[in-house]
Amino acid sequence: MPGGVETHVEQLYQRLAQLGCEIEVLVRSPYVPAKRDSFAGIRLRRLWSPRLVGAEVLVHSLIGVLYAAVTRPDILHIHAIGPAIFTPLARLFGLRVVVTHHGRDYERDKWGRAARCILRIGEHLGMRYSHARISVSQSVADVVQTRFARATHVIHNGAVARDPVTATDVVRHFGLKPGRYFIEVGRMVPEKRQLDLLNAFASAQVTGWKVVLVGELGSDAYSRRVFAAAQAAGAVLTGLQTGDALAQLYSHAGAFVLPSSCEGFSIVLLEALNYGLPVLASNIPANREVGLEEWRYFPVGDCTALARLLDRVSRSPPNPESVSMSRQVRQRFDWNHIAARTLNVYHELLPDSSREVKPADVTFSGQPHR
After folding, report:
1. Tens digits of per-residue pLDDT, 262-313?
2. Which H/E stretch holds residue 224?
3. Adjacency order of strands within the sheet including 38-39
4. Is the dihedral of CA 359, 365, 369, 370 positive or negative?
5. Rounded Cα–Cα distance for residues 123 and 128 (Å)
6. Which of 152, 186, 273, 364 could disulfide-pair with 329, CB 3.0 to 4.6 Å?
7. CB within 8 A of 178, min separation 6: which ones?
């Protein structure tokens, strides 16, 4: 399932291209067909990288910085703290560097000690040596200020405004009743804590409701544990869903649950609110920043507290506040506004800030939404 960074890049750069920027996105060769050289007005440049977990990000990012040193973009925009490890090298080449901090990836359970060390170094170098920094949440910005004494532009992730759909064929295909299931959307990784939701649901024994997990199961130990717990709880595993199918699953859910222990600023949470769903979320700082009613938050890992909330939501009539929250999300987290604010950051770094960023190359060290 495409992650937050990929979704962020897809939505942001389409709009920056519409604003007149010339965008070049550096993509990893194993993930993009050789014949595909553009996407929604964005130029794609395939750069070789090994398909090896851990090494591919570093190798691709290094080659990307070397490529930028030759092509001389007006702005080199690096996303995430892993690739940011090469920020000092980009500075040595005389490039103007913007780094977006998407979250403290070293807190994710999937990384071992060596990877976490590299991510911390990347965070340190990216925040210390970039010309400008963007944080996707105030909680991330606070960390940057505290640890590195560097100010950042807080520019949140966004949500594409979508109205609920009436079709139910996908919902029926999975044996679900509209309005009678809890939905969680995300990668099957430990920090998303799908097991907490399954355990809470099993203990709550909410009559007539089901749990739906949207995301692709892998062959790793955590995925196997999720599969076993889902079978025991009678949950529905839909696999990866996108487009109209995902829209249906959101539109007809009874509530959305986000039990994560680590988030930069959750795009799927914003998507659920956009659809007008009641939401329950772990009480980590990034989730609290969204501004839900206090009772909708629960401590990370507290399955008993979550079970009580599942029961409460299942017994509650539709809440008009969910509709109001949907309107607020569309206004506060609009991608067009986010793109305009990002463009202002670029302008601040250019020698003549009055000119348009065109023709300018804005380079992302990563891969686009697939």
Report:
1. 999 999 999 999 999 999 999 999 999 999 999 999 999 999 999 999 999 9
2. helix 221-233
3. 38-39, 42-47, 22-28, 361-365, 75-79, 97-101, 132-135, 153-154
4. positive
5. 8
6. 273
7. 168, 171, 252
Tell which residue, 107, 134, 127, has the closest CA to residue 9.
134
Question: What's the token pair of residue 104?
Answer: 């403290």
Instruction: Quote the CA–CA distance of 71 and 361 in Å, as a whole number.
Output: 9
Instruction: Show the domains of the chain with their CATH numbers.
Output: 4-158+334-365 (3.40.50.2000), 169-330 (3.40.50.2000)
Pairing mode of beta strands 42-47, 22-28: parallel
In this structure, what token pair is assigned to residue 205? 């024994």
At 195, the amino acid letter reads: L
What is the model's pTM?
0.89
Of 272, 250, 288, the closest CA to residue 325 belongs to 272
CA end-to-end span of the chain? 9
